Amino acid sequence: MKTILYLSMIFLLFGCASTVHVPDGVDTEKSTSHAYLLTETAHIEKNSEGEEERIYLINLDDEYLYRMGKDFEFPQQSYLAEGQHQIRVKYEFENRSAIGCLWLPAKVGERYVVKKELKEFSVVFWIENEQSGQEVGG
User: pTM of the prediction?
Assistant: First the structure.
């Protein structure tokens, strides 16, 4: 019984938290050594209608980001080294999903946000600089 209680507490503490991907060679202690990428759903539990929807980072420069046995889901945030990156994202809402491929010329010290717009039968993804709101990459 105690085991079930402890597992439930661990799930509540960590199961809903957005994981952060840290690529090899990125020093997270120095803001002058990396850029930061997050999705617009990274800090939101539910959308305006009270429903859960998520954008996940599933690939970064051909690296699959799900870590079997370590995470409960794909990350919604990642540190980035400076330079050109290819990013594959996945939107999930109820029983629907969409995958998009993006690229980003990351600059040290900058923060970027993956955004989406729902169209009639599709999802459009893009990346914006968090500070300026300007669209970057493609």
Answer: 0.80
